[in-house]
Design brief:
The protein is of the alpha+beta class. It has two domains: 2-49, no CATH class; 116-267, Sandwich (Immunoglobulin-like), CATH 2.60.40. It is 33% helix and 31% strand.
Amino acid sequence: MFLIVLLVAAWTSGSQEIICEQTKSGEEQCAPYNLAAYYLVQIKRTVDDNDGLITALATIVIAAFTGTLWKSTRDLGLAGDKQLRIARKAANAAKISAEAARDTVNAMIAAERPRVRLCKLTFSRFMGDADDPTKTPVITARFKNYGRSTAIILGGSFDRKMVGTLPEEPDYISPAFVQPGKTLAPGEEFDFPEMVFYDFGQYRNIDTPDVVFTTWLYVYGFVSYLDHLGQERKHGFAAFFMPPKVISHVPQGEQFAHLNLPKYTYDT
């Protein structure tokens, strides 16, 4: 750039100088030249005389520039990949953190919800002993709120069957009606309306009370309630009655063996 500035300055100034050159025969010729024009001619001669060298130098310069450009592009690509990996890791970490926070919140909400469960089934007979088949049988289902907030009882179903085996799916046909707006605070209990029926005599042979027969008295049903967030929940239950004089493995003081049957026993 500095050389170009000098040439332009010399050209515009019109300055001249006597310059001597040696010819091929060895003679020396001198003549006045415009300095700018002279140097331009000399540059052209140098370029023409060294065309191969100039081309090689240009090729080297271009190759060096291309290499520099490739390295810059590669470095930029590597930096972009690194940033992408960092961004993905950050996104995954944020997702994991959000899921952990959600699980924590859900666990806290679940810990505070009411949990209404069957706590006792009682078999009795109206105006008579529990083992007297001539008296009308009565079954009571009692529920308790084992949770940490108040439940609003909606109702449910309380059914019975005298069969050898319960069907695969329950047929809830006996609604259990409760007082509208019935609430159940933590630790409180309430009873479904009593189940009263009149055909219990077919259940067992009175003459052989110590033998378990093929026909069982099953009771099953569910209770429905609203939790602290207004979401409906259900608790399903199933059990079969063990007569007082029949040898069984139910806990002392219990009259029913509680069952764990798919589609009968559940909590939502």
